[in-house]
Design goal:
The chain is α/β, with parallel strands linked by helices. It contains ten helices and eleven strands. Helices cover 37% and strands 16% of the residues.
């Protein structure tokens, strides 16, 4: 069994997507473990990252000169330019790449084949694996942060509406994804490995809402909505048909076949955070 807690030399890690919800926590994880961090951000003046982090201005499509100098490992955020970023990192001698991908890329279910998430992440995974350097791919399932889309209706109507209220997912806390990324970026034994990551328990959408209500100390209601009604509402917000289809297919499938929890306890050295813990961490977002 791999010893994920083995002491290793200090690393210098380049973090792309450093001001995102995962990237920001990853920067903190790495600094807390004594590693050096170079954070790639479009606007260093507004990044609000710890002063110990070295901030460099740029993006995956606009890399500043010298951004890879002295870098041992790089965190690849899956956005436009990720493939070219990985190739440049390899060309400049970066020894390890860790990609934030998606569980959809595994294509374990018929719903994943041709989905928006599967198509995008599969291409980026192929680009990273083709670099010829050591890589690790993290494939989170649904993020608990997706539930932030409920914040507005919870504030103003004390509830939400949506289709498939009895479908069950295992949302993962972004802090657990960041902790897993920090571990595989800086510890041996994860080379050329792919890890599926989820939260510790599958909960129906009603139970997910209840977890938020418990954290807020409020009784919240879930109003059932037909898939067609949901699609019309999302179109009004400019959500693409491909995204709507992906969501509806996922929720429909997980009514009778709930997500199988695959928490990253073995990577992070502690139990994965529950959705109730996530809700407590995000109380301000719902108030």
């Amino acid at each position: 069994m791999t010893n994920t807690h083995q002491t290793v030399p200090t690393s210098t890690v380049l973090v792309s997507g450093a001001t995102g919800r995962v990237g920001r926590l990853l920067v903190n994880e790495l600094l807390a473990a004594g590693h050096q961090v170079r954070a790639l951000t479009r606007d260093p003046a507004r990044a609000a990252l710890p002063p110990e982090a070295e901030l460099v201005e740029g993006s995956l499509n606009q890399l500043p000169a010298g951004v890879f100098d002295g870098i041992d490992a790089a965190f690849v955020f899956p956005t436009d330019g990720a493939g070219a970023f990985a190739q440049q990192a390899a060309a400049h001698g970066v020894l390890r790449l860790v990609l934030l991908s998606s569980l959809a890329a595994a294509a374990d279910h018929a719903r994943d084949h041709g989905s928006a998430s599967q198509l995008r992440h599969t291409v980026i995974e192929q680009d990273v694996r083709a670099t010829g350097v050591a890589w690790t791919i993290l494939r989170p399932g649904t993020f608990a942060n997706n539930l932030l889309s409920w914040a507005h209706p919870i504030r103003y109507t004390a509830g939400v509406r949506g289709p498939y209220p009895t479908s069950a997912q295992a949302p993962i806390h972004e802090a657990d994804v960041a902790a897993a990324a920090a571990a595989v970026l800086t510890k041996p034994g994860h080379e050329n490995q792919i890890y599926a990551l989820t939260g510790p328990e599958a909960l129906t959408r009603v139970e997910q809402l209840d977890a938020i209500g418990t954290a807020l100390g409020r009784e919240l209601t879930f109003a059932d909505q037909t898939p067609d009604e949901f699609a019309v509402e999302m179109a009004q917000y400019g959500v693409g048909d491909d995204i709507v289809k992906m969501l509806l297919d996922y929720w429909a499938d997980t009514v009778d076949e709930p997500d199988v929890p695959r928490p990253p306890n073995h990577l992070i050295g502690r139990p994965a955070k529950t959705l109730t813990e996530w809700a407590h961490d995000h109380i301000a977002d719902f108030q």
